[in-house]
Design goal:
- By secondary structure, the chain is an all-alpha fold.
- It is built from 13 helices and no strands.
- 76% of the residues lie in helices and 0% in strands.
Length: 246
């Protein structure tokens, strides 16, 4: 009677185990299963405490569940292990902003920009961090430089316009919103921005026109009820004005 040979599985080495934990953790994170992903990232780190990608993955998980303090801890560890880790510096900056720590955000975004000056997102966030520090002039300069270097990057125009509106410079802000519409006529927030600028400048007819355009582009916006109410108010002001001069 022939004896069947039994194949025994060769135990995986530690490096393969670590890789398996990391791959599974990444897959779980992408499925928004953050708690499960955290467990597997930690298992990967128990095998290799110098795995910057697992620390980065942990940071992303904790950021997703809005535990920014822990996210900052793990992103910092990732940058310690890999000093040219652009993504980790960028995410670290975002978490500092979320925690209301603009100084830490500025430092992180500057490091990210030094590593990859071609990425406009970090530059934009640097401007936002300076806004949080009440450094409007610096923020405006950053946004303008970004517009010059990346003329098709709409968010730079939008952030600069928003800041100008905070500074009551509605005329300049409206010009920036118009530039956005030249780049993308479907960018509905620009219509609202222009309408608001004209409204603030006392140009009621122009304001109504752009408010209506906004409602056509985005009728189900959460801001639609406010815009509709303002339109009715502007119409009544016009009627009252006509009655007063009769």
């Amino acid at each position: 009677m022939a004896i069947k040979s039994v194949k025994t599985k060769t135990p995986k080495n530690e490096a393969q185990k670590q890789k398996d934990f990391f791959v599974l953790a990444d897959a779980l994170r992408q499925q928004n299963s953050y708690k499960e992903a955290i467990s597997h990232y930690l298992n990967a780190i128990l095998i290799n405490r110098n795995d910057e990608n697992s620390y980065y993955g942990l940071g992303l998980c904790y950021k997703a569940i809005e535990n920014y303090a822990k996210a900052i801890k793990y992103f910092e560890k990732a940058t310690e292990l890999k000093t040219d880790f652009y993504e980790a510096y960028y995410e670290l900056g975002l978490c500092h902003l979320a925690e209301g720590i603009p100084c830490g955000a500025i430092k992180s975004f500057v490091q990210a920009i030094q590593l990859n000056p071609e990425q406009p997102e970090a530059i934009l966030q640097l401007g936002i961090a300076h806004e949080m520090c009440d450094e409007a002039d610096m923020a405006l300069m950053i946004y303008q430089k970004l517009i010059e270097n990346s003329p098709k990057y709409i968010r730079a125009y939008e952030k600069k316009a928003e800041l100008l509106m905070k500074l009551n410079d509605y005329k300049e802000a409206s010009l920036l919103y118009n530039k956005i519409l030249k780049l993308n006529p479907e960018f509905y927030r620009a219509y609202l921005g222009i309408g608001t600028c004209f409204d603030k400048l006392g140009k009621r007819i122009e304001a109504q026109r752009y408010y209506r355009k906004f409602l056509i582009k985005k009728p189900n916006s959460h801001k639609a009820p406010i815009v509709k109410a303002r339109l009715e108010k502007l119409k009544s002001i016009k009627k009252d004005f006509k009655l007063n001069i009769v």
